[in-house]
What does this fold into?
Amino acid sequence: MQSPLPGRDILRVEGLEVDFDGFKALRSLDFRVQAGELRFLIGPNGAGKTTLLDVMCGKVKPSHGRVVFKDSIDISKFQEHQLAELGIGRKFQAPSVFTTLTVFENLALSMKQKRGLLSALWAKTTSEQRDRLLHRLEMIGLQDKAAARAGSLSHGEKQWLEIGMLLMQEPDLLLLDEPAAGMTDSETEKTGELLHAISNNQTIIVVEHDMEFVRRFAKTVTVLHEGTVLREGTMEDIQSDDKVAEVYLGRRVERDA
It folds into this structure.
């Protein structure tokens, strides 16, 4: 199935509810993302951000409503690994890489292919595959560390490697949970630039708590509160919204009498 063209919805969330033993983590949530977007999800703890990502990748099944991917794929009918094959890649907050393998080997293992783990590791790459690997190495800024063991990388470099591993799967939609957490200032800057580079070809949804990072790199922001959408728009729209200031930033807006 081909990816939606830019300007068309790649994901539609309609009336979504998730109930955990009586606690509604998501409430009648409607949400849309167009192909080619870089969308940031923000909100206070417990707003439902991670739960929403969990539903999108198949980890959590909705109690009500639906999530439609690429026009016709009802996400609730598929398991996590099936959705990965259909084009949804998920990265959790803590990096997960093969620490004893090299950076190059980690990327090669992640390449979209119909081969087992061992055969993928020892098989020779074709020139086309090698070009793809080198392209991703350059994109994530680890071309000079291709032969280094992944365990020797800094925290930020491991995060970039895992993003590169996701990209080797050729997903149409990337779900990233706090990709800049724990990074130095320079690593955070490079991560924001990497997200913008990726969004030239793929759609990205990012859950993020670092508001400075959001201010610097967000294109469109969705604010969640108590399991539903509170506000959506540019960062300027969000910062000027009185309700967001009250419930998310924790201050009541004083008005003139």
